[in-house]
Amino acid sequence: MPTLDLTLLIAFGTLFLAGLAAAVVCFRKSLRVSNERDGDLKMFFWALGGMVGLILAGMSAAYILLPIIIHYY
Prior knowledge:
Layout: H1 3-33, H2 40-72
Helix pairs in contact: 1-2
């Protein structure tokens, strides 16, 4: 595997895992805040953070990681 593809795979693989981890953390905090009184705005922002994490992970996987993996394997 050429060095540029390996570098992209490592960089965007890390970004993918970080996005998934951030989404899990944000959704867990969103569910925890949902039981509080007047926690609607906090719940919204934590859920929004979770969606951003999923979008970040999905875009890096779909546009960078999958084409590299399909090309070499």
